Amino acid sequence: MTDKTKVERRALVRGITAVSAAALSSTLPPNCVVAQAANPSSSANSDRFEGVEIKVGGNTIFIRRYGNGSPLLMVHGFPRSSLMWRFVAPQLASAHTVICVDLRGYARSGVPDSAEDHYPYTKRAMGNELVALMDELGFRKFDLVGHDRGGRVSYRLTLDHPEKVQRLAVLDVIPISEAWALADTKFAMTYWPWSLLSQKAPLPEKYLLGAPDAVFDNPFGGGSFGPEVKAEYLETYRDPTRVHAICEEYRAAAGLDIEHDKADQKASKRITCPMLHLWAAGGPLDTFYRAEGGALGIWQKWADNVQGRAVSGGHFFPEENPTETTELLSKFFSA
Fold first, then answer.
1. Which one-letter DSSP state was computed for residue 79?
2. Would you tell me how many other CB atoms lie within 10 Å of the CB of residue 186?
3. 200 to each of 36, 123, 206, 250, how far by Cα in Å?
4. Phi, psi of 314 (to 5 degrees)
5. Is 244 a catalytic residue?
6. Can you give the pTM of this predicted structure?
7. How many angstroms separate the first and last alpha carbons of the chain?
8. What CA–CA distances, in Å, run from 163 to 74, 261, 275?
9. How far is CA 335 from CA 39, 71, 93, 306, 330, in A?
């Protein structure tokens, strides 16, 4: 890591309080390593988080842990990391132990080798890893929130491990097989990562590595964040190994992930826990699928008990509109 990056990361976490390594060692599993300790000057309890690396199987997952209470797992999407929950997680921490993860390949988590069929980067493999992570932390059941790619990991985890998930919230996504089946020109032009990043290596890898800023300098990836946050996000896209992993996940979404969805549909397997879907007001999910009853109508084909509504703020409304996002999540998880 460069000196510049170290300075940026220190600036990013300034004012956030983390417990000491000594305190962590008495409360976390023995294979957890404190990966980050923030400036302890802040006195706001809701802003405290623990940055921890946890060994899960043959990989290492980085988490930000906030608060105490019933467990809540939060999963980011492309092109973000666990940092995207920086406004929402502290507010939820008053009632929950909030675990924000970096998915494999992203930010500070490990990067397992892929395979010819891309299985290690399927939503099933990633979901299985998160179940193992929560088991390692001592959480046999938990609530779950996922945004974008993290939303797709989350619904797959819920279908594969229904006994683990108490309540599921999925933000601004529909199931993978539905998205591909309904894809048209508007879809291809809007969700450019689906078609670009799923191409055979090394074409998409070269694009991402050649212009990593471009990921965030467009309507799909943009956000109202400062240079420190952008610098943190960009670290993933300067690493060829991580960029390849992200492309592998998109390749899995064009293949095995669809097969896993279709197998569940054939078996009439459904999401049985209470489910909340939030989507961006005026965004693609608010306008693309009216013939299908909108995004909520699509999810009703997959879930027995689903509710939802639009939220202002664009695709990344957890960052753009954290107050309303938090209020809606808090209401759902306290019901």
1. T
2. 11
3. 36, 19, 11, 10
4. 85, 180
5. no
6. 0.88
7. 44
8. 18, 19, 14
9. 35, 15, 16, 13, 9
Measure the CA–CA gap between 335 and 333, rounded to whole angstroms: 6
pLDDT of residue 8: 37
Backbone angles phi and psi of 214, in degrees to 5: -60, -25
* Strand arrangement, sheet containing 306-311: 32-36, 50-56, 59-66, 96-101, 70-75, 142-147, 165-171, 275-280, 306-311
Q: Is 7 helix (H, G, I), strand (E, B) or coil?
A: helix
**pLDDT-based confidence at residue 300 (cuts at 50, 70, 90):** very high
71 close to 99: Cβ distance less than 8 angstroms: yes
**Rounded Cα gap, residues 113 and 80, in angstroms:** 21
Given 76, 260, 277, 315, the catalytic residue: 315
Q: What is the pLDDT of residues 144-174, one digit of tens each?
A: 999 999 999 999 999 999 999 999 999 999 9
Quote the CA–CA distance of 280 and 291 in Å, as a whole number: 18
- 61-77 pLDDT, tens digit per residue, is 999 999 999 999 999 99
The single residue of 143, 148, 172, 264 carrying the catalytic annotation is 148
For residues 87 and 158, give the distance between their C-alpha atoms in angstroms, rounded to a whole number: 25
**Cα–Cα distance between 3 and 184 in angstroms, integer?**
45
Strands 59-66 and 96-101: antiparallel
Place of tokens 């802003």: 47
Residues 282, 284, 288, 294, CA torsion sign: negative
**315 belongs to the catalytic site:** yes
The answer to whether the bond into 112 is cis (omega within 30° of 0) is no
Strand partners, 169: 145, 276
Question: The tokens of 64 are what?
Answer: 């930000």
Q: H helices of the chain, where? A: 3-13, 21-25, 88-92, 123-136, 149-160, 176-181, 185-190, 192-197, 203-210, 227-234, 240-253, 256-266, 284-287, 294-300, 317-320, 322-334
Instruction: Give 167's contacts (C-beta < 8 A, 6+ positions apart).
Output: 143, 144, 273, 274, 275, 276, 332, 333
Mean pLDDT of 279-294: 96
Sign of CA dihedral 183, 186, 189, 191: negative
